[in-house]
Amino acid sequence: MMDYVIETHDLSKQFGTVHAVSGLNLRVARNQVTGFLGRNGAGKSTTIKMLLGMTHPTSGSGLLLGHSFTDPKQDLEARRKVAYCGEDKQLYAYMTVKQLIHFTASFYPDWRSEVAASLLHQFQLPPDRKVKALSKGMRTKLALLLALARRPALLILDEPTEGLDPVSIEELLQTLSGLPADGTTVFFSSHQISEVERIADRVCIIDRGRLAVDLSLDEIRQDHRRITLSFTHQPPEHLFDMPEVRSIETNGRQMIVVSSHGSDAVVERAKTADAVVVDVAPINLRELFLGTVQDHQ
Amino acid sequence: MMLLYKAWLESRTRFLLGLVALSGLSAVFVLFNHDVRAVVTDQNISYGEYIWRGIFKGQLRDIFVILTLLLGLGGLDRERSYGTAGHTLALPVSRWRLIAARALTGIIETALLAILPATLVPALSPFIHESYPWRLAFQFGALWTVGGILIFAIGFLSSVLFAGEYSAAVAAIVLLFGYSIATDLPGVEHYLVDIHDVMNGSGPHDVTTLAAISIAAAATIWLAGYITSRKDY
């Protein structure tokens, strides 16, 4: 039986008339890297803030490491085992690196000073420099140090590579991809598809507050196909209203169908509609993402 | 303990500026009393009345009011504008503990600022061959502490209600001085206590009044905590 570190049940958040998250049912498996993809404003950050008790859900419930995050006491217990790196990458500007490490360490009894010292050296962070004098990349490294020195069961990152230079992105992705081996589950939001594709074991796509896709990258590679069809007449889109069809794009007399369960059923249907199968190809995450969010528009 | 340390680091600039301003002005009022008298009060009054008019009722009290109001500002809404609220809220501590640490730090700082002129005036007076009773000075120090904590609480609540750095300060000043003006209105004056008059000893300052002010301050801080605990960040 799969063990989940995050489970949400019909989680919703409404800001005035805006539905930021609508009935979200999300499950994140332990000891994996899960990418949380979505367009700007899709509900990624709001979901993460609800998981961490920063924002109160309008309705719904959920568990974070087995603790209800809608219950303040249980949420507090969960936060002892969860580390978070926010989108802003802002830390207390008035503290030095050393002060901030000392401050954060005081909240975690299982803080590993030797790991902190090692990461401080590895990340080349100056201990006596004020946080406000650090670059964005260094602040991200410091946030990562603060997160990893307490060996969290779950590391949640909101747009971790936003604003970083290519070298910093590379170092960050390498660090993240190695964490599940040490027992830390990684859940990170992004709209950088290539980064998710590179390090994630699984991907969840949120669109307009709803979970649109929850698949492993292996499932996407093995099962999803892009089938290009050509017709001598106007393509009959309604014929392809099938459970395995994720999206349909029509361009003149050509139609591109994305199927989630191989190509056989779609090809069979195409033959009955006098279509010529031009091409059947596996799809990548970018195509799946674009097909998903464009289809829902 | 580390939350108190954080609250201290966040407020220390304001506190130390207040410390320098109040101690410097107290020293000037006492040591250069002949020069200052001509400008801010009257030459023909006793030393004790000069101190009361200039310090415990006068300009220094107004400066203290502004300083304590500023000490109340800050907190999670300000952190949100700086982008650090996420880091603070992800710590395994309740929002009530965050509020309590900030409130406790602010109350201690307010008390220290309140006691400063009360200590300096009797201590410096012998240098100009004058004397000022320690007991009387500390009575004013106690009144400033109680009044200052309520003013601090108003700033504290304002920073929860108004997210903007300046809007919270302006709202707190408007509220405080609006209340002060309201206490002078005919028909209302008998029902409201002017906190400024309490602080300078010209208003009611019996134990019941001081207890009521302390309860009002505690209730204001509790309200700020309650709003914070239910807020989305």
Structural class of chain A: alpha/beta
Largest sheet of chain B: none
Query: How many H/I helices of chain A?
Result: 10
> What is the total number of structural domains of chain A?
2
User: Biggest chain pair contact, residues each?
Assistant: A-B, 33 and 22 residues
CATH class descriptor of the largest domain in chain A: Alpha Beta
Compute the number of strand runs of chain B: 0
Q: What level of helicity do the residues of chain B show?
A: over 70%
Overall body shape of chain A: elongated
Folded structure, characterized:
The complex is a heterodimer of chains A (297) and B (233). Chain A has 2 domains: 4-219, Rossmann fold (3-Layer(aba) Sandwich), CATH 3.40.50; 224-295, 2-Layer Sandwich (Alpha-Beta Plaits). In chain A, helix 4 runs antiparallel to helix 5 (136-148). Chain A has 10 helices and 15 strands. In chain A, the strands form 3 sheets. Chain A has a 6-stranded mixed β-sheet with strand order 7-8-9-4-10-11, sandwiched between helices. In chain A, strands 1, 2, 3, 5 and 6 form a 5-stranded antiparallel β-sheet that branches. Helix content of chain A is 32%, strand content 30%. In chain A, strand 5 (59-64) and strand 6 (67-68) form a beta hairpin. The two termini of chain A are 36 Å apart. By secondary structure, chain B is an all-alpha fold. Chain B has one domain (2-230). In chain B, 77% of the residues lie in helices and 0% in strands. Chain B has helices at residues 2-31, 33-40, 47-56, 59-72, 76-82, 85-89, 95-124, 134-161, 165-182, 195-200, 207-230. In chain B, helix 1 (2-31) packs parallel to helix 7 (95-124) and helix 8 crosses helix 9. The model of chain B has no long low-confidence stretch (mean pLDDT 92). The chains are: A alpha/beta (297), B mainly alpha (233). Chain A binds chain B through residues 49, 52-56, 72, 76-77, 79-80, 82-84, 86-95, 99, 102-104, 106-108, 143, 158, and chain B through 1-2, 5-6, 9-10, 82-87, 89-94, 229-230, 232-233.
